[in-house]
């Protein structure tokens, strides 16, 4: 599977791989990619399978779902093609769950972690069913009304009132997400494993970030991850919702840069 991606910064810089959430694309990480590349890191931001400019690929069994293990496998194949043996790995929301899957499958490839606005556990039965129902819905009617409903929960009220640029960017990503890829990811995500116990096996520096107003993965979820990952750092971005990297990019970037420097993960 060939993933569309951006590859910024010096080729000799320490690699950083950033994984977007649902239903977004690699432009979600634009502020962080620019900042880190300017600091001397090599930053790779892919579009996941079925999102952005990356195709959905062929399922050998004809399944209309993409498991998080498939996303993780695609990312490892991308880093192999780019010659990146070890890298800093970050993900937000679904991207964070894909990151947890990748670390479980390939622990030796990762030298530091960013887990932003994500959730390690399983869905409740109603939440799991809601993913299947939403997948069927967007397959039939597309992303327009889904994006409209989701937007007020994605970013905080304060962001909507003060950052029309962020609201427009988030709306555009959601509306433009290919419905087939988004639906396949929802079905696969409904069947994901529980990553909670595996968090205790993580042995690399880890930064956990969450927006104080996140409705999808509230601060309590981030606190749980922080407790499970020994030696991890927790940062709560005040006034931000589910996308603090866009809503409060200055604070988010500073937290990430400080973490990398304090962890000795220099460019």
From TrEMBL:
Listed SUPFAM superfamilies: alpha/beta-Hydrolases
Molecular function as annotated in GO: hydrolase activity
Sequence ranges assigned to domain AB hydrolase-1 in this UniProt record: 15-248
Keyword line: Hydrolase
Stretches that traverse the bilayer: none
Keyword Cell cycle: no
Pfam families linked: Abhydrolase_1
Keyword Iron: no
InterPro entries found in the cross-reference section: AB_hydrolase_1 (IPR000073), AB_hydrolase_fold (IPR029058), Carboxylesterase_BioH (IPR050228), Epox_hydrolase-like (IPR000639)
Official protein name in the record: Alpha/beta hydrolase
Organism per entry: Amycolatopsis balhimycina DSM 5908
């Amino acid at each position: 599977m060939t993933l569309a991606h951006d590859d910024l910064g010096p080729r000799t810089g320490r690699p950083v791989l950033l994984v977007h959430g649902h239903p977004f694309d690699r432009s979600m990480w634009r502020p962080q990619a620019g900042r880190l590349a300017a600091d001397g890191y090599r930053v790779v931001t892919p579009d996941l399978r079925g999102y952005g400019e990356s195709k959905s690929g062929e399922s050998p069994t004809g399944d209309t779902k993409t498991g998080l293990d498939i996303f993780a496998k695609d990312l490892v194949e991308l880093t192999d093609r780019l010659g990146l043996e070890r890298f800093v790995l970050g993900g937000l929301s679904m991207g964070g769950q894909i990151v947890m899957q990748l670390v479980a499958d390939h622990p030796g490839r990762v030298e530091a972690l960013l887990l932003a606005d994500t959730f390690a556990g399983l869905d409740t039965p109603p939440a799991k069913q809601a993913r299947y129902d939403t997948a069927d819905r967007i397959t039939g009617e597309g992303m327009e009304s889904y994006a409209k409903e989701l937007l007020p929960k994605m970013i905080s009220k304060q962001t909507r009132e003060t950052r029309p640029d962020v609201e427009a960017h988030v709306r555009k990503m959601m509306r433009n997400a290919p419905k087939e890829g988004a639906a396949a990811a929802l079905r696969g995500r409904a069947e994901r494993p529980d990553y909670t116990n595996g968090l205790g096996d993580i042995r690399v520096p880890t930064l956990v970030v969450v927006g104080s107003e996140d409705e999808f993965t509230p601060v309590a979820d981030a606190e749980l991850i922080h407790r499970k990952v020994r030696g991890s750092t927790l940062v709560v971005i005040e006034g931000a919702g589910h996308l603090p990297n866009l809503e409060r990019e200055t604070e988010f970037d500073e937290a990430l840069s400080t973490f990398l420097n304090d962890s000795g993960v220099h460019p």
